[in-house]
Each structure stands twice: as C-alpha cells, then as structure tokens.
Amino acid sequence: MANDKSVAVLGVGMHPWGKWGKNFVEYGVAAARIALDDAGVEWKDIQYVAGADTIRNGYPGFIAGATFAQALGWTGAQVSSSYAACASGAAALANARAQILAGLVDVALVVGADTTPKGFFAPVGGDRKDDPDWLRFHLLGATNPTYFALYARRRMALYGATDQDFAQVKVKNALHGLNNPNARYRKEVTIDEVLASPMVADPLRLLEICATSDGGAAMVVCSMDYAKAHGYDKVVTVDAVTTVTPTFPNTVIEMPNFSTDSSKTVAQAGRTFRASIAHATYEQAGIGPEDVSLAEVYDLSSALELDWYEDIGLCGEGEAENLLRSGATTLGGRVPVNPSGGLACFGEAIPAQAIAQCCEVTWQLRGQATGRQVEGAKVGVTANQGLFGHGSSVLLSR
Amino acid sequence: MATKTQAAVDGFFDPAIPALLGTKCTQCATVFFPAEETSCRNPYCTATTFDHITLSTTGTIWSYTDAQYQPPPPFVPADPHVPFAIAAVELAEEGIVVLGQVAAGFGVADLAVGMQAELVAETLYSDDDTDYLVWKWRPVKEPANG
C-alpha cells in the first residue's frame, strides 16, 4: 500500500534487550551493523544519520546521532539527534523520512539505544520545583506505574475489565515472545503466576508492569527510487509516520502532570490524545484499522494494551476486553497485537523502542518472524506515546 | 518535634484554607492548575494576564491507585515505607482532574470511581523544626443507614 509519501525499509537490526550493563553506544552500533548488513548497504554510503537520544547516559546520549556516527567512523554524513521521550525513535524516523521525501538525501540510518538504571524511572537530578516531572515524585510519590494503574482502574470501573483480563494480556505476550531472540524475558507465565506476583500499584502487579531494559535498534531507510535503482524487489515501506501533540483541552491525566487541562472553555476534540495518534497515521496512509494485519503497541502495563486496542481502532470503546477474550489479538487470531512479545517481554529501552516496533513489523511483513509469524501479514501499525505529549505511530506495508 | 508548618512547595496550595491555588485567564476565563501566569494555553487565546483563584475543594474520584513500593527521590519516604493511596479527582466547576495522595488512614479498599472526595492539608514530610504540608484527597463516605 505504498503511496507517494512512502520510503523503503532496506534493513533492520536489533541488539538483544537485557540488563547488560554496557555503554549504550555499543548496543546502537551493534544494531546499526546488523541493519546495514540486512540492507546490503555500506556505512560509508549512508548520507544521513538520525539518532534517538537517551537522557540517562550523559552528553553522548543527548547528541546520539553524532555519537553513533563517530562510533561507526566519521564519514561527513548529515546528522540529527532527537529527544521525544518514548517517542524518540519515531521522531528520528520522521526526520530521516522527511529528508528523503524532500529529496535532500537518498539513504539514511536511524538508530536508538539505551542503558537503563534498575527500578522505577526517577526524574533527572537537581532541586527543580518548576518541573512537573520532579514535582510529581516529590509532592505525590507518583511513579510511572501510578499513571498506568489509574487507567487500569478506570477500565475496571467503566468497562468491567477484570484482574484476569490484565493477567491474560501478560500471558499472551509472554507466549508471543517465547521464541523471539531479541526479547529479554522468554518464559511462559500462567494467569495464576501473574496474579500471585506482588501488587505494585493497585490493580497492577509486578508481572503486569514493564521493566526498564538495555537495548538498541536500527533501520536503514531510503527513497523508493534508490531502492528501485539498487535492485530491491518487494521491499517493506514506511507509508506514514506521525508525531502528533495533544489537542487542547487534554482532559486525560498524562504522565508527568498532576492535573489535566480545563474542559470548560474550549470544546473537546472528538478523540483523546492516545486515539488521535494512530488516527493521524491511518489518515496519512489513506487506509483504516480494518486493513491492519498486526499491531505493535506500547504495553507499559498489561492493562494499557487494552486501551490501545480501542485507540488504534481495532474495536470500539469498552470492547477491548471482549476482543482480548475472543483471541483476536493472539497469534493466529484476526489481528495479533504485540507478536514480538511487546514490552512485557522486552522491557523498555526508551529511545530504541519505537524503532524496535518497526523492526518487528518489518520482519513480520517479510515473513521472517520465526516462531511468532503472523501468517500473510501485509500491513502493520505501531503506536506509542512519549512523556509530555509526543505521539508516535508508524504504518508499514509490503 | 516540629514546631512550624509550611507548604512543601510554594504556589500550589494554601494549607490554611486548605485549597489549591490556580489562575483564571482574564480574557477566555480558562482555569489553570498549577497556576499559569505567563501566557494563556488555550490555543485560541493570546492573553497574558490572569486572576489568582482558589479551586473547588470537593470533587469526584476519576480513578485511584496506591504505591505499594517506595517511590524514588525526590519523594521523601517514611522509614519504613508506608503504602499510600493516590486519587485523581475531577473538579466539576473547573473541569480539571487533579492528582493527590489520599488522606492518611484510607486505602484503595475505601475508594471507588465516582465517590466524592474533599481536599485536606496533611504532612508530607518533616524535618527538625518544620512539618511540610501537601494537599490530599479524603473520601467522603455516605452516611451509613441504621
């Protein structure tokens, strides 16, 4: 379903997710080398490097594009470095795509990698009483799982979601990721095991909240003309990338804020911020959720995956539990969600994660997702949301 | 023993009332909490002047959870950590949902989506001579019959 705004994906690569404790640059370079090999493109021929930044690894992380370029060997390529929290990878891909579509470059490398601390993500240091991310920890003790749990509890109250539903999402994703060589957690779990894990933020338990991981992911993307001229046949294409902000008034409480906008003076948009993310992608690609073969969504918690079913249009509001229970989102079902295993099996490596979603969709569309293949996959969509209002969604097809 | 009390952070709430401190745009009347004092965030408004207001002190629980594990700094924990509940409360008049810890003594079992809650001031943490106060939400129980 390529269109006149499509770019070709020549290669993808990942460094396995884990808690390796090495420098993030190592993961990014490893992923880049795999993507370049997969593409059959030499590093010296890359004209543009789009890095996705990490904020927990000092200055090299803030200028990740240049950091990776230097590590691969300076070539004089154009460079950019993007930070958009969890959406950083999509922001980097959006940069590369825009450069290609503008005709400024033909072939680009997109890379993101992270080395993460153990435990809850904490705000960056200092006494910063004007930073909502600092204030929510200081005044409220509101961690990231606090927000995931607020959404989960609301699903239970409004739509009748149960503890078993949330656990079932984890069971499903654990099964999906069992044979994924890049996944950190490759172990089946049962509903009882999930429900027996310690409560972290009621109603969410330890096995329902994604961990923080080290990892790296990369893509080689190019113009359709470049792909054709170099003899690539039947390539995967990126048909849409969106990085939307919320629309005022944003009336759903969002990390890291401790209040919403007021709904009283401006009419609310027809859809919530999360729903607007994939909607913008479908609109750009000129297709709809009914055309999607699979989705990779940001399951920061098992319950949040259910919100995404509705937000990416796989079902109507309040219908996600039934969609899950029907088996439609499990491998073999109508539209498998997170066939990679999702964050449940990976944990979150922030700047790499949106790129990793695209890597998985690419493998699925090529029929290379051994052990977790969605049969006959033609279109895949990704969705993700970055702190402070960064949407991220990519639509790929073959 | 602490002898003084003060708000844990200036400008967010007045512990004496107690009430949250916000602003209202002088042109479009949009209410902001935390207070917006520089430039109106309604995209259709360019006002730069605001009236200072206090927000409603009761609302409806939009959702709730708790913190079974000790949050990282800059949270100042009790030693040992005492789990506490957190609620998101919708203020009808302002159309704003505000997060807050739930008052001491109340846990998730005492809460429900749609329940009323009222704002109280409680100690967030203390040092040698001062109790630092924060707003919290206290569930309002319907009076039990019989």
What does this protein structure show overall?
The complex is a heterodimer of chains A (398) and B (146). Chain A is 37% helix and 18% strand. By secondary structure, chain A is α/β, with parallel strands linked by helices. A 9-stranded mixed sheet of chain A has the order 3-2-4-7-1-8-11-10-9, sandwiched between helices. A two-stranded antiparallel sheet of chain A has the order 5-6. The model of chain A has no long low-confidence stretch (mean pLDDT 96). Chain A contains 14 helices and 11 strands. Chain A starts with 6 loop residues before the first strand and ends with a strand. Chain B is mainly beta. Chain B has 2 domains: 11-55; 57-127, no CATH class. Chain B is 0% helix and 45% strand. Chain B contains no helices and 10 strands. Chain B has strands at residues 4-7, 13-14, 19-25, 31-32, 50-54, 58-67, 84-91, 96-102, 116-126, 130-139. In chain B, the strands form 2 sheets. Chain B has a 5-stranded mixed beta barrel with strand order 6-7-8-10-9. In chain B, strands 2, 3, 4 and 5 form a 4-stranded antiparallel sheet that branches. In chain B, strand 2 and strand 3 form a beta hairpin. The radius of gyration of chain B is 17 Å and the shape is globular.
Succession of helices and strands of chain A: EHEHHEHEHHHHEEEHEHEHHHHEE
H/E element sequence of chain B? EEEEEEEEEE
Structural class of chain A: alpha/beta
Oligomer: heterodimer
Radius of gyration of chain B: 17 Å
- End-to-end separation of chain A in angstroms reads 7 Å
How many strands, which pairing sense, and closed or not: the largest β-sheet of chain A? 9 strands, mixed
